[in-house]
Please model this.
Amino acid sequence: MKNLFLTLSILLNSILGLSQPLTINISENHFKIDEANSLIVSHIENIETYNNISGFSEVIMSLNQNDYSFNSIPTALEYSNSYLVTGTSTANQYTLYFTQLPIISIESSSTILDEPKTLANFVYADNEQILISKIGIELRGGFSQSFPKKTYDLEFWEDDNGEDTHNVQFGNLRSDDDWILDALYNEPLRLRSYVANKLWLDLHTPNYLEDESKAKSGADVKYVELFLNGGYNGIYNLSEQVDKKQLKLKSFKDEIRGELYKGVSWGGAVNFTRLPTYDNSSRIWGGYEMKYPKDDDITDWDNLYQFTDFVMNSSNTQFIDNIWEEFDFDNYSDYFLFLNLLRATDNTGKNVYLAKYQSDEPYFYVPWDLDGCFGTIWNGNNENITNDILINGLIDRVIVLNPNNSATAISNKWFEYRNNVFDSTSLIEAIETQYEFLLNNKIYEREALVHSNYPFSEQDLLYMLNWLENRLNYLDTYFGNILSVNENNSKENKVSIFPNPIKDKIYIANINYLADKEYKLFNFSGKLINQGNIKENFIPIKNLEKGYYFMVLDNETYKLLVK
Model:
């Protein structure tokens, strides 16, 4: 009824030329004011209602009963604009932005340290919920602690000392007492880790999902805007934790069942380059931190030591026969493809979790801290390298020994993914969607007011998209050559085309053999649909209806399916 009345008032005012003020009431916690930067960020209910307000004599924002008058009457209120307003009681001028993102406010009277956690008051507000709680907060990260924009670890407390905690939930993220606010300071567009985390969740599911239906393969994230002690701190990823609860690992019961180790430094064991001796009085070994079992259960590195020893020192025959019993192949192949698509150079060992669901199951990888990817590295600098393959000691030995012809299986999986989750259009859309949201909602503009380390320009986007195109082309060739070698080693076939079913491209594995040769594509009724000569390692196929087709290539006929 309120919105209907407002709409009718605006319409009547426009028709009759009435001159009256418009007051917009914003309730407590749905706005924050940064006095030092003269900045207001606010939610607004049903912003589309204010698409024509130019006829009012005055427009006033009432923020928890404190009024701010617009310096000039806007035509409309939009997320894609900013407005100058003046406080009616103070005469101070502010820049006002409306946001679609949740607003988080954290107030602490103590200095926030690396550890221990210090008491703070926390408020979260979006259009669905307001959450107010005490928290313990501490700095998170290593080198990133030197950045002016910090990453934080949060724990939700019942009391001032953190003796009792409680779970909270934000939107569709999980319910938990432990959360991360990731600063994104070393990301030129503040979107790489967001897109990468979402991509991993789309790509991979745990192999034990039938037994643990709520298990996730990694951490989910959502954007928020943070005010810290009254100052605007910019955009953050509010992130779930990678832990036993997220992965649904089996609990410790007088013996180790589920295991979780976090790669925190380049200590040799994390990337299978060195096998140091272990000390069960320490929760750190070889670059790993033991996260589960917990300290008060047991500290025993023997399982991980034996696995690392097997990867590094087993005989070739032992490795070939047993590696996929020791490490989950589906996870390995997905992680290898994901790692190399992103070229996430820090995630070959240091920024990865190694986990085991239960004692008789294989190990698997979980990525974290995905800020250095898509053509940037850990410090935020661009590294325009697209023509290499990232490895560690495990990956290198799998490539060299090729157990169970894993190279062919992984290459086929690559081209299968290129038709869906790694489809060029889908990847570009995921990046552009986030860029356009942040740009059009003026988030880059207000981020630059307090953290101007990057220009947040279209040039950054073009670099990222160009890098991605070159990376995909290189990996298409790399995996195509693997299939080509396998096909050329076969006496039965000289030609290899894939995938089948197809979407928009037919890839040619052995391009050197087929260069400049003619191809013809016919529908199931024998009508010629397309023809040409092989110039690249793929044939573009677009706008075909679902069904069966025939391709004639090098005097051979191939039956293809478009789904």
